[in-house]
Amino acid sequence: MTDTLRGAAMPAARPSRIDSDRVAGLVLAAAVALPLLLFVLLPVASILKLSFVTPTGLGFGNYIRYFSGPKFATVLSNSLVVTAVATAITIILAYGFAYAMQRTAMRGKRLFGLIALLPLFAPSLVQALGILFLLGRNGVINRNFGLGIDIYGFWGIVIADVLYSFPHAYLILAAALAVADARLYESAEMLGAGAWRQFRTVTMPATKYGVISASFVVFTIVITDFGNPMVIGADFNVLATEIYNQVSGQANFGMGAVVGVVLLVPAALAVIVEKWVSRHSYAVISERSAPLVPRPNPLVDRLAMLYAALVSLAIATIVGVVVVASFVTLWPYNMHLSLRHYRFEVQNGIEPLWTSILVSLAAALIGMVVTVIGACVVRQLSPRIGRPLYFLSVLPAAIPGMVLGLGYIFAFNNPANPLHVIYGSLLILAICNVYHYHAQGFLIATTSVKQIARTFDEASTVLGAGLLHTLFKVTLPIIWPSIVSIGVFFFVRSMVTLSAVIFLITPSTQLAAVSVLMLDESGNQNQAAAFSACIMAVVCLSLGAVQLLLRYTGGKGSVLR
Amino acid sequence: MFLSLRGIVKRFGAVTALDGVSLDVAEGEFVCFLGPSGCGKTTLLRSIAGLELPEAGSILLGGEELARTPARLRNFGVVFQSYSLFPNMTVARNLAYGLECRGWKRSEIEERVARMLSLVRLDNQAEKYPHQLSGGQQQRIALARALAPRPRMLLLDEPLSALDAKVRDELRGEIRDLQRALGVTTIMVTHDQDEAMEIADRIVLMNDGRIEQVGSAADLYERPASRFVAAFVGRMNVLPLAGGAFAGVSFSGMAAQEVVGIRPEHVELCTAEHADAIAGRVEKSVFLGSVTRVTLAVGGGRMVIELRGRVADLAPGSPLAVRLPPDALHRLSGGPH
C-alpha cells in the first residue's frame, strides 16, 4: 500500500464561528415563512379586521346586525344540516365502496377505482349541472315523463355534494382498509367469531380513525362548497353562497367578512379535530403482520360488484350527462348531435380556458417549488422553528376558499400594500390557488421527504456536503416523481376550482371554471356543459401525459394519488 | 493523544444517553464501542462524527477542539448500518461525492474512484446503481466512499448488522485488513461481542450511558471490572459469599467480598472426598459439540459448568462434586445483574 491514505485535515476544515449551514437554514426558513405570512395570514387577518369595521368605528356592530337579522339563523342551520346529511351519506356510501375495493375479490376494481376519482377532475359545479340535466325543471326526466320532481334546494345540494366529496372520502377509507393483519382475522375465526362479529370487533376498530378523519374532511369540503349550492340551491342559501351574495350582489364587504368568519369557525374546527384524531391513530400494522389477502367468495364478490357498479354508474352518469349535453343541439328538446356549443360565441370566447391553463401551469410551478422547499426546510430545522412553520404550512386547510378569496381582496386591493401591483393580474390567481391548496401539497411533499432515510442526509453531511448541496444533489433527485405529482395536483385543482378565485377575476383574467358558473347563471346550460367538458379534457390529457412521462423515465410515482 | 473525549453528556428529553463519558484513542488504533442496545454507544459515535451535539464535554482531535466544527467539515469517514448509498447515483458517482464536495479536480477524482474500487475489489461495478448490488457489496462501497476523501478517522456504526452471517464474517476480516493497511484510526460500534473481540485493538464496554471498562478482549474476559462486564462478555457464575465462604468452602482473602465470580469452563470436577469439594446435583446437561454444559444445583443456588467434550452419565439428579480453583475466582463489584 504505497498510497498514503492516512488522514490529513481537509483544507476547508477550518472551524468557523458562523457556520454557513446555519445561516443558509435561517435564510431558507425566512424564505418559506414570509410568503405564508403574506398570502395566508395577512388575508385572514384582513378579513377578521374588516368584520369589525362599521360606519361608526371598530366594534361588533356588523356581527350584532347580522346575528339579529332574520337570515342568519336560517343560513347557518341550512349549512349545518345540509353538511351533516351529505357527510353521513358520503361516509356510508364510500365505506361500502372502499370495503368492496379492498376486502373482496370482486372483478373490475381498476375501472371502479378510476370512476370513483372522476369528480376530482371536473369543475366543482359539474355535479349540480349534471343533476339538473337529468332532474331539473328542463331535465330529461321531467320533460319526458312529465314528473313534477323538484330537485332544487336541500336535496339537490345534498346529492351534488355527496358525489362531489365522494372521492375524498373513498381515498381516505381505502387507505384505512388497505392494510390489515390477517392473523387477527384468523384468530377471530378460530375463536368462533362470525362474519358480522369479525367486522365489528376487528375491522371497525382498525378503521375507526379513518372513518372519523374522512368525516371531518368531507364536512369541511361540503360546508365550504360554493359551486354546487350556487347552481342547484335556488333560494336555499348556505354560508358559502351567502358570502358571495353579500359581496358580489350587494357590495356589502363588511357583511361578507362577517359571514366569512362564521364559515371559518366550523371549517377550522373540523380541520383541527381531524388533525388531532389522525395524530392519535395508532399503527395497526406491526412489522410481523401477515398481510390480508381477500379470498374469493362468489356471493359476497357478486354483491360487492353490484354495489360498486351502482355507485360508479351514478358518478359516471352525472359527469357523463354533462359531456353528452355539450354535444347535442339543445338538451333535452333537440337531441341531435351538434358542435355548436363548442363555438363559444360568448364574450371572450374560449379565452378563459387558455387563461385557466396558464394560471394552472403557473400555480403548478410555484406550488411545486414552495411546498417541496417548505417540506425540506421544515425537516431540517430544529422543532422550535420547524413546528410553527409546519403549522403555518398546513393552516390553509382550515381556510375556506371563499374566505381566502375575500381576504385577498381586502389585503391586496389596497394601494397602501406594495403587493397591490399583482391585484387583478394572472399572478394573484396562481398565488391564490397555491395557498388555497398549500396544505395538501405540503403534506404530500412532507410524506415523500420523510421516506428518504435520514442516513442519506447524514451520509451527505459527513462526506462534506452543505445543506444546499445535499438538497440539489441527493434529496430532490430522489423525490422527483413526488414533485411531479405535486405539480399535477396544483394544476388539476387550479383548473377546477371556483371558490377562492371567484372574487379575484377581472374581465381580462376570466377563468374557465368561473365561465361555467356565469354561463349557467345566464341560462346557457349547454355552453356551460361544453366548457366543463373542455376543462375535464385538459385535466385528463395532462394526467395522461404526466403518467406517460413518469413511466418513460422509470419513475415509480403515480399521479393518481 | 489523537482523539480525546472529556466528560461528554448528551440528553434526549428526560433520557440521559451519555453521562459524562471520557476516553482516549491513539492514532492508528481500532476501537470498538460494545454494549447492549440503548447503552449510548451509537450516540457517542454520532457525537464524535458531529451528527449529535453534546450538551457538555469536549472532543479534541490532535489537541484541537471540534465542538465548533460542523460534521461536514470534520473530515471523518462514516459507514452507516445500511441504506446510506445515494440510490439516484451510480457506484462511481457515490464514491466521487465526497471528493466533489472538497473541490477535487476531475482527473484526480477519476483516479481516486478507480483506486478505491480496486481496494474493495469491485472494479467492474462502477456504473451500477446501489439497488443492483448485494448487501455486502453495498457496504463495501459505503466503506470505500467513506475512505475516498482520506478521512482523519473512520467511524463505523454497526456496519455489519444488516448482513447475513457468512457475508458478515467475510466483511469483518476485510474491514480489519483495510484498516491495518491504511493505518486509519477507526471506531466501530457493535452489539456483538464476538465481533468486537475479533476485530478490535481495544474494546470500550458501555452500559447506561457510561463506560464500564476499557481494555483488550483478554482484559475484559479475564479481568472484568464489574458484574456487568463479567455477565456481558462470556458467561460468569456469580456466587454469593458469606464470610468469605461458599457452600461451606472458604476462600482465603475473600472475607470482605460479597460475591465472587467464576467462568463455567474454570470450574473443575473432583471427588467428593477432596478437601475443597462442593457437593452438587445435576439439574440439566446439554451436549454442545466441543463442550458439555451442565447446570448444577449447589449451595441453594445454581451454577453452570462447561466440561470439555462429551461427558456421559450426567442424568438429572445424579450427584456431582466440583471445586473452584482460587486463581480462577473474580472479585466483582457493581450492582446485581
Question: What does it look like?
Answer:
The complex is a heterodimer of chains A (about 550) and B (about 325). By secondary structure, chain A is mainly α. Chain A has one domain: MetI-like (MetI-like fold), CATH 1.10.3720.10. Chain A has helices spanning about 20-50, 60-70, 70-105, 110-115, 125-135, 140-145, 155-180, 180-190, 195-225, 225-230, 240-250, 255-280, 300-325, 350-380, 385-395, 400-410, 425-435, 440-450, 455-460, 465-495, 510-520, 525-550, and strands at about 55, 55-60, 330, 335. Chain B is elongated and about 80 Å long. Chain B is about 25% helix and about 30% strand. By secondary structure, chain B is α+β, with helices and mostly antiparallel strands. In chain B, β12 and β13 (about 250) form a beta hairpin. The two termini of chain B are about 35 Å apart. At the A-B interface, α19 and α20 of A face β5, β6, α2 and α4 of B.
Could you provide a short overview of the structure?
The complex is a heterodimer of chains A (561) and B (337). By secondary structure, chain A is mainly alpha-helical.
